[in-house]
Queue: 3 jobs
Job 1
Amino acid sequence: MPIFGKPKYTVVKVSRKKTMPEGLWTKCEDCGEIIYNKVLEENLRVCPKCQYHFVLSAPQRITLLIDSSSFEEFDRDLRSLDPLQFKGPKGSYPEKVKEDQALTTLSEAALCGRATIEGKKVIFGVTDSRFMMGSMGSVVGEKITRSIETATEEHLPLIIVSGSGGGARMQEGMLSLMQMAKTSAALARLHKAGPPFISILTNPTMAGVMASFASLGDVILAEPKALIGFTGPRVIEQTIHQRLPHGFQRSEFLLEHGLVDMVIHRKALKGTIAKLLEYLSTNRPKTED
Ligand SMILES: [Zn+2]
């Protein structure tokens, strides 16, 4: 006979899997809210509670920003070599590329091409942070540079959506770092020729990507709460032995400090780009040498 008598309730073992099937819910990375996936998709992958913007893939970005079926990709067949014969703890560089190609169905971390946005012709590029953290190796750098050069030759506005936690791709060493100078020099020539460059920064845009083409827009837009910078906040804190201010390196902080021109909610992004294209096509100031 139990000391406290017979329990007045029955314990029923419920498998978590039965009550909460996998793949139906997502936890918000910022506020912790559990969001029904269907609601998250309908809300363009933005948390309905705190407006945290989840990462989008490059194809999702194209669906979001580009007029339906107007995207014509160029340079899809460019492939990186393995100049350093790089071998990491999880395998060789070509093996990692193959793995990410299978995961994303992309050939590399950037998609570039021609497109229209609300009927306006543009050259459009987007990086995908699922593919080697959106890092810039020689293929990403070359694709971005060719996009800039096409915009320059054909006098078309250039739009690039950046998302890279990786910056320059370490597996290609110096060849990766060279892409920073190459893309920046090509943008200087575009600037001289006149067409506008709208750079869109998404969570996260860091290191070699941010320190080259992503920060050189005539207009720089950022999605809310995106982490944007060169070195991450944890490394900076460890180096300077000081606590960083709240929201440091987030879009809103950078807007306040002049690095970003506008922080735009994902729902308003396409409309804002279209308005900017309209404005910049008629009000572009003449550049001086
Ligand atoms: Zn949230």
Job 2
Amino acid sequence: MKDDWRISNRVTQIQKSAIHEMTRLSKEVEDVAFLSWAKPTADTPEHIKEAAISAVKSGIVGGYSESSGLLELRERIVEKLKRDNCVNANVSQILVTVGAIEGLFAAVMALIDPGDEVILPSPTYSTHIRQVIIASGKPVLVPTIEEEGFILDVDGIKNAINSRTKAIMYCSPSNPTGTVFAEDQLCQLAEIALENNLMVITDEAYEYFTYDGHRHFSIASIPKMRKNVVSCYTFTKTYAMTGWRIGYLHAVEELIPQINKAHIPLAICAPVVSQYAALAALKGSQECVATFRKHYLSTRNLMCERLDRLNYVFEYKKPGGSYLMFPKILLEDGKDSATFCKKLLKEARVSTTPGVAFGPKGEGHLRLSFCVSEEEINKAFDRMEAYFR
Ligand SMILES: Cc1ncc(COP(=O)(O)O)c(C=O)c1O
């Protein structure tokens, strides 16, 4: 393929997404029990949809906005960052992006030169790894400590730093493990970043979904990290707005025009209709977020109960956040998670994601998503109980 089409080395290195592959295969299975997507299954709340419809009808969404996003939206984001993230920002420090993904990619493109190393705690969201590769950077995967619930290995990160290291990139709460990195660990990480003059790129997509007293902590709230952090956020998970493609990033004022140089060729600006929808999301009642969180807490508990009954097949750490969990497969044929998942799909009609999709440290695991209905979880686990009996 590469020789025929002269595809770039950057793209050739990237393997097909196991997540999309499982989705494709799942479509071929009738009445599949689907636990493989990190996508909210609820629809976007009505008041957000109404605001978008009325913006469309008023004729204000047909043109581009400022590349950094509508001023009123950035003003609301500034308020939100102060209220929920303890981050003191101003509108010049905000860039509205096409979901968190485009914000992360614009940040990576603005910060990473070919050959620069980026440390990623592993397992991690595979898109982060791909973004570093597309920027011709080198992802350096540092295993998290699974026995302690996939927490950061701060010493491991320290030991991985060398003269080529440019940044540390992580998501917390984590996709795929559901781990919420604790404030004290993130403070230690901040010290390491400052000592070594590294940038930290954060993905805080699941910031509102934490449980059992785990608290989301934004590393940008540490005042001396001002110049060293680019924080990426999204409306996707918080307000069930996956398809609207709207998110934003926060960074020090001097960095925004530089990141904007990458943002403009990628997007020009975020979709304007979605910016109005996002504005309504921030202006409106936050009750919907509480409702989603409550639902995920109860589906997480149900999934853990059902996993307990399969304790001869899976061993798991209860996730403190996100709507994902990452059990280890105890069976011998679980060592190859891709084959295991395909077999589970074909023979038990349960769709999951192979752990290897999240880096080599994820091999031997499955990612299960609990942003589904209780019926879907029960359907999947009834089938797995019958299958593994
Ligand atoms: C950790 C993480 N970041 C980002 C995204 C995508 O966010 P967005 O839709 O805002 O681009 C996902 C989606 O699954 C995710 O799990």
Job 3
Amino acid sequence: MARNILEIKELYKSFSKGKYGKDDETYNLLSNLNISIPENTISALIGGNATGKTTLFNILSGFLKEDSGNIYFHNSKTTNLSEIPPYKREHLGIGRLFQDNHIFPTLTVLENLIIADKNVLKGNPFEAIFNVKRVKESEKVLTQKATETIAHLFGKSHELLSKLNDKASSLSFGQKRLIGLIRLFMSDYKLVLLDEPTAGINPALNDFISEIIKQMVLENGMTVFLIEHNMNFVRKTAHNCFFLDNGKINMQGTPSKVLGNEFVQKNYLGV
Ligand SMILES: Nc1ncnc2c1ncn2[C@@H]1O[C@H](COP(=O)(O)OP(=O)(O)O)[C@@H](O)[C@H]1O
Ligand SMILES: [Mg+2]
């Protein structure tokens, strides 16, 4: 049995009902939520609209504060995430795919891929300026790494390979999503959070997206926790599935078990 990399215990989060944030009227969005994510697996969180899935991810990455409960991240040591600010969570090894894919439109596709590599940003920036040779060399290595990664994941004739020197703004939304995912693939995050990786994407790209996610786990030893509405994608991609309903995990197991469950079918899938 794999150990758990993330454990969410008795998590509560409420929001104010009113538009103006009057705190006398609140409702519990997440209410005694418990989830354990096994290391080196792909786990999918499913549930109806506005059930709190994105809110949970915002809490995990530190953009929102839980009302109560504990979140343990087990990497080389165990950290209780509650008091850790967002940027430090990234340093601990928790990465996230953003809705806009965090693409810099005026940089080239290649620059977008290598800029995120922590090796480029490591060390003193002044040292980097004076030590041009070292930077050039690492740039060369990173360029090769980026090119090889795309060829390895998608094949040597994938269209992205001919667009490496194009401005990122020229990419389609789906291609930007691929770049965002490849960047995470090339990172050294241990846990990667993906909020609806296939949303708004041409379905022809879904297999590529599924493939990167699988290889994050198989090759890089990462753990992926994703939110998805595309159930075919969940079946094809995830090892575990968690059904969020009424603030807590109502059902969990393999995708076929959870998606085959009568309650899930009636209350979520509309079968
Ligand atoms: N920062 C916030 N302040 C107030 N309400 C919020 C905030 N973030 C989310 N909500 C509310 O919480 C509910 C769940 O939102 P969300 O987590 O985005 O749902 P899901 O991702 O499951 O569709 C929504 O009704 C949303 O309006
Ligand atoms: Mg959402």
